[in-house]
Amino acid sequence: MTITDSNIEIQIVHKIPESISLELIKEAVLMAYKKSNRTYDFNISVNVRIVGINEGAEINRKFKHKDGPTNVLAFVGEPDRENNLGIDAPSIGDIVVCYPVVEKESDEMKKDVEQHFVHMIIHGFLHLMGYDHQDDQEEHEMNGLTNKILRSVIS
C-alpha cells in the first residue's frame, strides 16, 4: 500500500512564497515515501503544518521542552494501532515546519529557500518513517537518503 497526494493534509498558517506550492510539498512527501525503502501494508496519511515564529516556539517548548522555534519537528503517529482500529489511511504523524527559521537558515547558508524548505519536509517525513540521526551511522544513512530524495524532487 502507499500514501497518495489526497492523504497528505497541508495546513499553511504562515505565509510562504508562491514558489513553494502544495504540489511541491506533496511531491517531496511522495518521493520520500517511495525512496525510504520502508512501507506499510495499508494506506497511510500525513499532516504537514507550516507555522510562524510564535507557534513554532510554542510547539517546541510544549513538546520538546526547548526555547525558541526550530526549523522542523516531526511527531510520530501510531499507524499500526490506528489501522487495527479500522481507521482508513491512518496517520504516520505530523511534520511542523517553521518557515521563518527555514528562510533565515537559507539566507545564512546562501541556499535557495525552496530547496531548504523541501529538505526540511523530507527530513521530517523520514523521521516519521523511522529514520533517525542519534549516532554517526544513522546520521550518514539519513543524510544520504535525504540528499538523494532532494535531488529527485528539485531537478
Please render the helix and strand layout as text.
Elements: E1 8-12, H1 22-35, E2 45-51, H2 53-64, E3 72-76, H3 79-84, E4 91-98, H4 99-109, H5 113-128, H6 136-153
Parallel strand pairs: 1-2, 2-4
Antiparallel strand pairs: 3-4
Summarize the entry for a quick read.
This protein is α/β, with parallel strands linked by helices and 155 residues long. It has helices spanning 22-35, 53-64, 79-84, 99-109, 113-128, 136-153; strands at 8-12, 45-51, 72-76, 91-98. Helix 1 packs across helix 6 (136-153).
Summed up, the helix count is: 6
- The overall strand count is 4
At CATH level 3, the topology is: Collagenase (Catalytic Domain)
Instruction: State which percent range the strand residues make up.
Output: 15-25%
Q: How would you spell out the order of helices and strands?
A: EHEHEHEHHH
| Spans where pLDDT lies below 50 across 5 or more residues | none
Q: What is the averaged pLDDT score? A: 95
In words, what does this structure look like?
This protein is of the alpha/beta class and 155 residues long. The chain has one domain: Collagenase (Catalytic Domain). 50% of the residues lie in helices and 16% in strands. The chain contains six helices and four strands. It has helices at 22-35, 53-64, 79-84, 99-109, 113-128, 136-153; strands spanning 8-12, 45-51, 72-76, 91-98. A four-stranded mixed β-sheet has the order 1-2-4-3. Strand 1 (8-12), helix 1 (22-35) and strand 2 form a beta-alpha-beta unit. The longest helix has 18 residues, at 136-153. The chain is globular and about 45 Å long. The mean pLDDT is 95.
